[in-house]
Design a protein that fits this description.
Length: 79
């Protein structure tokens, strides 16, 4: 039988994994919405140069999401 400390730690890891996965999905969703908005604005006559600061934010979000996913993968014990 597993000790209570091990059981508690297992629950904490599962909870953290769920939160981290949710954060990754949120970040990716925001980045996708920014990319879609940039494309829509270009379609309505804006230039890529005008929208570069906004597009750069989407790129930054995507990079942060990838870093978060890498950290989760690196620190998640194998099943």
């Amino acid at each position: 039988m597993a000790s209570q400390a091990l059981t508690d730690l297992t629950v904490e890891i599962q909870d953290a994994t769920t939160v981290e996965a949710s954060a990754t999905a949120l970040i990716n969703g925001i980045a996708a919405q920014i990319a879609a908005a940039v494309q829509a604005a270009i379609g309505n006559g804006a230039t890529e140069a005008e929208l570069k600061p906004v597009a750069d934010l989407g790129t930054q979000l995507k990079a942060q999401s990838e870093a978060l996913q890498a950290a989760i993968t690196a620190n998640t014990p194998a099943a």
